[in-house]
Amino acid sequence: MSTPAQAGLGRPRPTLGPIDLLALIVGIVIGAGIFRTPALVAGMAGSEGALVAVWVAGGLLSIVGALCYAELAATYPHVGGDYHFLGLAYGPRIAFLYGWARLAVIQTGSLALLAYVCGDYLQALLPLGPVGSSLWAGTAVIVITAINWLGVREGAAVQRWLTLAEVGGLVLLIVAGYAADRAPPAPVTAGGGSVGLMLVYVLLTYGGWSEAAYLSAEVRGSKRRIASVLVAGLALVTALYVLANLAFVNALGLDGVAKSEAVAAEVARAAFGPTGAALIAGAVAIAALTSANATAITGARTTCAIGREYPALRWLGRWNEARDTPANALLTQAAIALLLVGAGAAARDGFALVVDYTAPVFWLFLLLTGLSLFILRRRDAAIERPFRVPLYPVTPALFCATTAYLLWSSLTYTGWGALAGCAVLAAGAALLLFLKPAATEMAS
């Protein structure tokens, strides 16, 4: 039921099925990261067994977190996802800081980075001159926003097809790794890296599964479906990630993977020759575009939720019921992402910089969301819960311990970009001096 503050803003309807949700989860998780992070992790792992173990651990830890999110999303379905959960548990100020972080750091930064990855590889296939990568990246942001501005059905349909192509490209790369002659064993020159830092990169590559919470109000049928779809999606991703890493090691050797700056291209070239590089360039571009589309879908919903709670930002909270989409939030998100695309043109290593910039802020709020499950279980003991996390309180305690460790790791092992992300979060806290929530904040 809408609150008086939300009257006239429109509200989402249950229009998405399990396949739409599965496509979004798989599509946003299998992004450009799997083509980049294996080299970083291999350089710290020291052995093939350790490499496989850390990727399996990442998948299992992600499933543990997904079960916690499934209970929150099934019990408190809302277009704001984590924003809503945090507001219920801690009040509107913490919720606003999270929404600000997604708008200014997490989602728009990820959208710009993914657009740039897509642009770099499209530039290799279809060069547009010296600034071609930037042009392709800007075009990707505009096209993705336009599709989702037309409506959630259009965005979901594009997501299904992109996810199918993305998974197909990763499977092709796995086949290429096993088709190549096995690399001769060689002494590994790297290794002994921090488990925490390895998990930062691995769980970054698994990142995105929590985005399903932002569509909880738009899923048809029983909310219990959210848990099964999340687990199925992450199980599929884990299997693909482990197979991909084993294929990379088969083709290049562990030391070769660790030293590679473009592991996917080298594997494809080893199996298929020069044609392989072109094939993988297309696969990486599709993977980045798929994740960017899913990021745009879910990111705009947080921004919309903020607008629905703060009268000064009311225009962001308008929901276009004819198209079932947060149109104004999508446009605002695109504008910020385009500014970041322009700024990112000068970055030397945008991938590592965005990891540093986003990681501490991301893990902080993921930890707070995990803790909110304990708070809301105690506070709302009588409320109906369509899905309950198994082995409570052990499961959410494991999730919170993991996120706390990764928060510490992201602050300890990352560079100055982490300080920049924290500074932007502090700027959001300053905004709270001028913004006042509606009297009925955080209502559904």
Automatic annotation (TrEMBL):
Q: Please give the start and end residues of each transmembrane region.
A: 21-46, 52-74, 95-116, 128-149, 161-180, 186-206, 226-251, 271-292, 327-347, 359-377, 389-408, 414-435
Q: Where in the cell is it found?
A: Membrane
Which GO molecular-function terms appear in the entry? L-amino acid transmembrane transporter activity
Q: Which domain of life is it from?
A: Bacteria
Kindly indicate whether the keyword Membrane belongs to this entry.
Answer: yes
What Pfam families does the annotation carry?
AA_permease_2
Keywords (alphabetical) are:
Membrane, Transmembrane, Transmembrane helix
| Topology within the bilayer | Multi-pass membrane protein
Query: Can the keyword Zinc be found in this entry's annotation?
Result: no
This protein's GO cellular component annotations are: membrane
Put simply, this protein is called Amino acid permease
Organism this protein belongs to: Sphingomonas spermidinifaciens
